Amino acid sequence: MAKIESHLGSLPEHYERLGLKKGEIALWEDGTRTNSGEKGTYEWWYFDSHLDDGTSLVIVFYTKSMMSPQTAPDPQVTFRLNRPGEAEYSQVYRPAKGEFSASKETCDVRIGHCYFRGDLRKYEIYYHDESMEVSVTLQSEVPPWRPETGHIFFGKDDENYFAWLPSVPEGKVTVEITRNGTTARKSGTGYHDHNWGNINMRKVMHHWYWGRARIGDYQVITSYIWAEKKYGYNEFPIFMIAKDGQILADDGAKLRFTPQGQFIEEETGKPVHDVLVYDYQDNRNHYRVSYRRKQSILNFPMVNDVHGVLRFLARLSGFDGAYHRFTGDGLIERLEAGRPVEKIESTALWELMYFGKTV
Question: Are 306 and 316 in contact (CB under 8 A)?
Fold first, then answer.
């Protein structure tokens, strides 16, 4: 079978087609890009944070499941709270029919009584279920960024795409959590990105690693994506490092990715690595970012997120996709003449999304 074309949209015609400017992010880019989940598309707004007491919090607003782009909108909010020494608190909130809106001009998404809104500088996120109420403020400390246009195109005529905008690569977070009548206020660091596309991701993506961390004065975003078999398992390296609010390096072509310590995760049957190394070197900079897994906080067979007849069809087709989330140590090294001249370590969070069959 001939390999089908896939590439990161980086040419002038890609920018013109999408109405984007190189190196500039407009406010509307974080607004809805799919007419609030029109048929054939999916879209989500993602937030995660590391809090100073070791708590991690992840909140995602979806127009529908990424696995069901052909369906009508099914707005939902997923909520995951991990506190040291406690079992994870995890919920999926679905509103009454019709209780969903999203602006095209800016990030202003409302799902029932929950909302996610902001202007590329400051965001407010509110979540509420029967036993938990959470208010988040995220203040950006790194400018919004995307790898070129942020669009990976698939097909001879670029007819299909997956798009990604890290609206807040890193920022200060304050969180107010009320549970069982008790309110706690916490602070830490956070991240927000925006994703959308027009084709079932498991048809074009085989798997990816993604991570982000604040390490000392540095902020990093790392990703390595493999396309599906019919696209020749094409690889998409993505890397961004910033310091003091300035982006230092972000050319994925200068990145070498090395996963180490592979094992098979029992719950999902997928290969997972204990160590990930992203080595970036251009004419001026040489950085090495490493993630070392301490804990798998989520191992999730994705068929569990499909319901009714769709779950039956997924099992019938042999779909066995999985999502993993990890925490551990993030290490950044700045090198000169091949030798580390600076080393800093901190907590990091990263994920492995695995749609395809194990290679």
Answer: no
